[in-house]
Amino acid sequence: MKALVNTAPLQMTFRDEPDSVMLADDEVTLRIDAVGICGSDMHAYHGHDPRRVPPIILGHEFAGEVTRGPSALLGRRFTGNPLIACGVCDYCVQGRSNLCSNRSMVGMTRPGAYAEFMTIPAKCLVEIPAGMSASRAALTEPAATALHALHMAQRAAVRPIQESTVLVIGGGAIGMFMALLLMHYGVRHVHVAETNPLRRASVAKHAQAVAFDPITEAGPQDGSCDIVFDCVGSKHTRTAAMKAVAHGGVWVHVGLQDWASEIDMRKLTLAEITLIGTYTYTMADLRATVNALHQGSFGDCAWVEERSLSDGALAFADLHEGKSASAKIVLRPH
After folding, report:
1. Mean pLDDT, residues 6-32 taken together
2. Its pTM surpasses 0.85
3. Which residues contact 310 (CB under 8 A, 6 or more apart)?
4. In this predicted structure, what is the pLDDT of residue 276?
5. pLDDT at residue 262 in the model
């Protein structure tokens, strides 16, 4: 089969690879019809993820059709959960499989979806509604990350989120999905901090949010934001989030660009800031997100760009160099 392989830092190679092999009896083979480029894939592309070691087939935002597996599943279309949980630990039985201590992951511990075919346990599959395009279905994983984070914020907020002033830091895919979802929920004061001018324009156009350059433009006043979503997760964005969040406010940490930095613990304590770490999604989030995407809760997704998998190396390079206005590029293997 053809696959796009991360062969070294800043190097993606489209080449022949051995056909996908089922690793267990409960697995299926998917013919991949669409697969998105994630920020964590870019992190691996830059050589900054010790968990993803080249040569490796990345890709975990996928949609496809079952070509091998139980007869009841053959020919049916699915997206799915790239986090393969054990199903028996305390977290799994609580419905928090994203925290499973025994989890593995597509595109990290096993070959991913930047290929014509991929294997995955059948328990990870989430069926795609009839009439839903593969490209839109492949957006389920990043959109579910935004949905999960928003639900975490809603549980912690003192007042309804519709009344809140919200800052989203980062106009990448997660930030864009977050802004779109906030607007769908009726939040009228949504600000998005993004340094890339192409992405700022895209956020303003498609999410109808106030997009600004945090380096050169004034955003919301310090201490004025009831909820802050840091969808970047760097030292600088953590500092910005702490400055922006209001007393008694909620700061949701979503991105993981940097692994450590200082936090103003004095303000966190004296201002009673709620700091929430949020990681990916649950199976319930994924199922809800498929339906939300299909029903238009995230808009028409016209900002998503499609390219052939064979052109994937250039897509990675364009994202690396900031040349793409789209926060999400979906690759089509077929």
Report:
1. 93
2. yes
3. 2, 14
4. 98
5. 87
Whether 25 and 148 share a structural domain? no
Instruction: Using DSSP bridges, classify how beta strands 225-230 and 165-169 pair: parallel, antiparallel or unpaired.
Output: parallel
Whether residue 182 sits in one domain with residue 237: yes
Q: Kindly state whether residue 111 falls inside one of the protein's structural domains.
A: yes
pLDDT at 284 over 90: yes
DSSP structure string for 17-73? -PPP---STTEEEEEEEEEEPPHHHHHHHTT--TTS-SSB----EEEEEEEES-TTT
CATH number for 213: 3.40.50.720
Residues 164, 123 share a domain: no
Is residue 59 situated within a structural domain?
yes
Residue pair 275/253 in contact by the 8 Å Cβ criterion: yes
Question: 236: domain range?
Answer: 143-277
Q: Looking at the structure, tell me whether residues 132 and 157 fall in a common domain.
A: no
Tokens linked to 306: 């499609």
Give the model confidence (pLDDT) of 139-176 as tens digits. Answer: 999 999 999 999 999 999 999 999 999 999 999 999 99
Q: For residue 23, is pLDDT > 80?
A: no
The whole-angstrom separation of Cα 146 and Cα 170 is: 12
The single-letter code of the amino acid at 200 is R
Q: Model confidence at 137, in pLDDT bands (50, 70, 90)?
A: very high
**Residue 332 and residue 113 in contact, taking contact as beta carbons nearer than 8 Å:** no
- Report the candidate in 212, 218, 223 with the shortest Cα–Cα distance to residue 169: 212
Q: DSSP per residue over 154-186, as a string?
A: HHH-SS-GGG-EEEEE--SHHHHHHHHHHHHTT
Same domain, 117 and 206: no
Q: Would residue 297 count as lying in a domain?
A: no
Number of domains observed in the structure of the chain: 2
- Tell me what percent of the residues of the chain surpass a pLDDT of 90: 92
Measured distance CA(110)–CA(106) in Å, rounded = 5
Using the structure block, give the residue that is written with the tokens 């919301």. Answer: 220
Q: Is the pLDDT of residue 302 over 90?
A: yes
Residue 294 lies in a domain: no
Residue 136 identity:
R
